[in-house]
Amino acid sequence: MKSRILLTACLLISALSFAQEKKVEKPKYNQELATSLGADKYGMKPYTIVMLTTGSAKIEDKAKMSELMKGHMANIGKLADEGKIVVAGPFLEKNKENYRGMFIFNTKSKEEAEQWVKTDPAVQAGVFSYEIFPWYGSAALPLYLKHHDEISKENP
Question: How far is CA 59 from CA 1, 7, 75, 126, 128, in A?
């Protein structure tokens, strides 16, 4: 009898704890922030994605390739500092499309994105080629960059 009462009490307590789950309140809409980020009514905006692909140049000189990659990284940093690039990074696995990495540029203009990607020394040297695609994503995407330095101990 005691075990039935104990079991019933445990089941009742469990049911009540599920019923009292905390509801997460949606943050209050911030018109000023939305406007400053160029957000539409859905909090989204157009960007341009550049997919870096394997280029036609075959550079065997390791020192030359190292110099080009340092220039590639410096250019990414410069474009990020200027607010032109909001995401950049390599792919971790080989793929049949020969995609090597990607940029998300803070522009809806494919022409402008192409001008910016052509400033990359590795693109100029033919180490990378590229494909350009329009993309629609969260207008808050650029905000993550201000926190990246807080979580990275080293730069590549």
Answer: 82, 72, 20, 9, 11
Question: 32-70 pLDDT, tens per residue?
Answer: 999 999 999 999 999 999 999 999 999 999 999 999 999
**Token digits for 5?**
């009462």
**CA 128 to CA 117: how far, in whole Å?**
10
Tokens of 119: 């400033």
Closest among 64, 82, 83, 80 to 121, alpha carbons compared: 64
Task: Name the CATH superfamily housing domain 42-151.
Answer: Dimeric alpha+beta barrel (3.30.70.1060)
Q: What's the pTM value of the predicted model, to 2 decimals? A: 0.77
